[in-house]
Write a structure and sequence with these properties.
There is one protein chain. With about 500 residues, the chain is an all-alpha fold. The protein folds into two domains: about 190 residues, Up-down Bundle (Growth Hormone, Chain: A); about 230 residues, MFS general substrate transporter like domains (Growth Hormone, Chain: A). About 75% of the residues lie in helices and about 0% in strands.
Length: about 500
């Protein structure tokens, strides 16, 4: 039986670069639309509350489908799933741009939902491809380099959105994805390794119940944040509980479950995902609330505000690759914990800001939070993916991406709820604040920042929980060696066969 040889060094990094080109579009699209919302609302003559469904629908659809598409990638093949998602994302972006020709904003919201399906398909797979392509000794570095694309997307999204909207109109915000996406699609099709999927079938009941559970939960969080405990929100919570119960019952009985619950018996896998959830909650408390501080208390213009806020993602870009590379040598436990603790310190320092802070006072605190995030994320992602068995890398990648997106939503909701509970509605609606209202707003902001610090402070503790021996024993059921196909970039003959057991061990040190 032919043996699969490890990909050459240059080949591995070509795969990583192709994934990064595609990966940058997701965070750009998540952040670029926010600055265009007033323009979109004006274009369709609708209130801002209606326009807010444009970004919200996108994020909710992504969060609800990541797990399903991660499992689908394990079944049909990671490359096929990724390319299908990227193609759908590009097509939906063109439709979103064309929605300016239609009479109602509902068409744009619908096309954003379709775009979210493509983004979920595309975003659920990269961690799995990277983990399968790179040996364990390079996995942290590769995941750290990949984090650059996410940070770069978040950093350039607002400024790019403002420029495109001002120069060409809001449809250009979506149209820019088309040339980038076509280039990413052609490159990925050429360099991504061909892999056959695992034996199994799609768990349709599990996919439906998990989608309903996640979507109803996110709708409940959104409803609670906007209007408190109302009947609609309570109904969404009950629907979430019922569908989550049905999902867990189905997963225990299904012959080919969407999510093998035994994955969570691995302490490293479970606690690293908990740490990711808590850290992203704290991150989006920071990202969501700080612009209000800069705009309403310090009276910054949008261009100056964006410049100060860029200190956070730029710090992540610089630190994440080095943190990932270091985790390959010293392990993930200490680095992830230190990074989360640094984030907690940064949020504590943010809570000490005054109504007359200088730009540098805010920027260095944001940079410190970015430093902690960069130190935390790459080792923590490596811990999650390294503790998953090779036959479930897509599921593990989908879980990690789902945790990230749910953490974002919970962070925004928690920060907004705490601020709203501490500040009177009249103060919240004022575009600029001074005197007593400014002190009231800053007091509420401090409470929210302290809550964010507590989230990532707990993440620093959960990051210390790891299996006693590196990675621990994988408790997922044994699977036959997965079939694979290697397409040689030089045009040589493709080789099909099965990974040998020792090859699986070399890629995942936790398989014995």
């Amino acid at each position: 039986m032919p043996e699969r040889r490890p990909a050459e060094h240059g080949r591995r990094y070509s795969v990583l670069a192709a994934l990064m080109v595609g990966s940058i579009m997701g965070p750009i699209d998540a952040s670029i639309v926010n600055v265009t919302l007033p323009t979109i609302a004006q274009s369709f003559a609708v209130p801002l509350s209606a326009a807010q469904w444009v970004p919200m629908t996108y994020l909710m659809v992504i969060s609800s489908l990541l797990l399903f598409f991660g499992r689908l990638g394990d079944i049909v093949g990671h490359k096929k799933t990724y390319l299908a998602g990227l193609s759908g994302f590009v097509l939906a972006s063109a439709l979103c741009s064309a929605a300016s020709l239609l009479p109602s904003i509902h068409w744009l919201i619908l096309f954003r939902a379709v775009q979210g399906v493509g983004a979920a398909t595309m975003m659920s797979i990269p961690y799995a491809i990277i983990t399968a392509t790179f040996p364990p000794t390079e996995r942290g570095r590769a995941l750290g380099i990949n984090a650059i694309s996410v940070s770069a997307g978040l950093a350039i999204g607002p400024s790019l959105g403002g420029f495109l909207t001002h120069s060409f109109g809001w449809p250009a915000v979506f149209l820019i994805n088309v040339p980038i996406g076509i280039f990413a699609l052609l490159w990925a099709r050429h360099v991504l390794p061909e892999t056959k999927g695992q034996s199994g079938k799609v768990d349709v009941p599990g996919a439906i119940t998990s989608f309903i559970a996640l979507l109803s939960f996110l709708l409940f969080v959104n409803s609670w944040q906007r209007s408190g405990p109302r009947s609609v929100g309570i109904a969404m919570l009950l629907m979430c509980i019922l569908s989550a119960t049905a999902f867990l019952h189905n997963e225990r009985r299904a012959s080919s479950p969407l999510l093998d619950l035994r994955l969570f018996r691995d302490l490293t896998f479970s606690f690293a995902n908990i740490s990711a959830l808590l850290n992203f909650m704290s991150q989006y408390v920071m990202v969501f609330l700080t612009p209000f501080y800069l705009q309403r208390l310090l009276l910054y213009r949008p261009d100056k505000l964006g410049l100060v806020m860029s200190a956070f993602p730029l710090a992540v870009m610089v630190v994440a690759p080095f943190s990932g590379s270091l985790s390959d040598r010293v392990g993930t436990r200490t680095l992830a914990s230190a990074g989360a603790a640094t984030c907690a310190l940064a949020l504590l320092l943010m809570s000490r800001l005054t109504p007359v802070a200088a730009p540098a006072d805010v920027a260095w605190r944001l940079a410190l939070f970015g430093l902690g995030t960069g130190v935390f994320q790459s080792p923590n992602n490596s811990a999650v993916m390294g503790s998953a068995p090779p036959q479930q890398l897509g599921v593990a990648s989908g879980i990690l991406a789902t945790v990230r997106n749910v953490g974002m939503v919970l962070g925004v909701a928690t920060g907004g709820t705490i601020l709203a509970a501490q500040v009177s509605p009249g103060v919240l609606q004022q575009p600029s604040l001074s005197g007593g209202p400014a002190a009231e707003f800053l007091s509420g902001l401090r409470c929210a920042y302290l809550a964010g610090a507590s989230f990532t402070g707990v993440a620093a503790l959960t990051s210390l929980v790891r299996n006693r021996r590196r990675g621990g024993r994988c408790t997922a059921p044994p699977a036959p060696p997965p079939a694979f196909t290697v397409s040689h970039p030089t045009g040589g003959q493709s080789t099909t066969g099965h990974r040998r057991a020792d090859d699986q061990k070399s890629r995942n040190p936790f398989i014995r």
